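Journal club prep — side note

Before the paper discussion, L.F. wants everyone to see what a predicted structure for a comparable chain looks like in token form. Sequence:
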Amino acid sequence: MPKLSQTATRKRRALPKAERRNQLIRATIKCIAKKGLAATTMADITNEADLSVGIVNLHFKTKEQLLIETLRFVADEYKEGFDQIFANDGMQGLEKLKAIIDYDFSPKIINRNKLAVWFAFLGEVKARPIYQKICAQHDDEINREICKLFSSLLSKNSKRKDDFELIASAYSALTDGLWLDILLSPRRSAVEAARNAAWQYVSGLLD
């Protein structure tokens, strides 16, 4: 590989802070997906990002700080897309539900690196309270919105109108299970089949 000129090196170092942090976070995601959470080292991350340890330390003092920000990045990215759906006043309840399912199984979410990272962090929530706090905060906010949506959709169903919390919780568990199945056995579990399974579950409860 040819050496970078001094000018090129300075330009790389002069990237905006937010862009540099995102570069390091993306490198961390790739490393965790390849090696797992515990086995990933700062050296792995710097090599993946093609940066020096010194530059990394300017943005993240420790590996743990970088891991925490990586989890926040993945969680915030998911919630941002979710919030956009709920903020869309042009969609009715059933349209929003369909949009959520489409989003949950879209290429942006069904990304093997991000799925691997998400489940890697979930596996550590008991040992790392900060991980649990970040995951719980996002889950609670999302679940509240999903509960409201199901409550509205089931309001005219006399048999199920009081089951909206249970149904919302079951949908979240179903989604997690389908994501894990896609991650572990991508050939056996097609994304379209997973999306259809999620839709069949919720649409069957709304009849």
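L.F.'s comment for the group: The chain has ten helices and no strands. Keep this in mind when we get to the figures.
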